[in-house]
Amino acid sequence: MAKKFPTHPANPHRICWGCDRYCAANAMACGNGSSRTQHPVEIFGDDWNGFEDEDATAAVPTTGEAAKVTI
């Protein structure tokens, strides 16, 4: 079972976020590349969890001509 992903860690720069091991940045055991994977809060800021994909939230018609799919 995967570990719960922290949304706002205290010191995200100290950990590699590339896998479920959450290794220290200076002692990566998984060999996940040559450098550590950053936490989304380091890349996108404190409100990273509030971003949504515009395409995913667009209204999808469920009835009428637009909902018919032809193959």
Describe the protein in words.
This protein has a domain at 11-46. With 71 residues, it is low in regular secondary structure. The chain is built from two helices and no strands. The mean pLDDT is 76.
Poorly predicted ranges (pLDDT <50, ≥5 residues)? Answer: none
Termini Cα gap: 40 Å
Helix segment count?
A: 2
Binned strand content? under 5%
Task: Please name the defining characteristics of this protein.
71 residues; little secondary structure; 2 helices; 13% helix; elongated
Brief overview, please?
13% of the residues lie in helices and 0% in strands.
Detail the topology: elements first, then pairings.
Elements: H1 40-44, H2 54-57
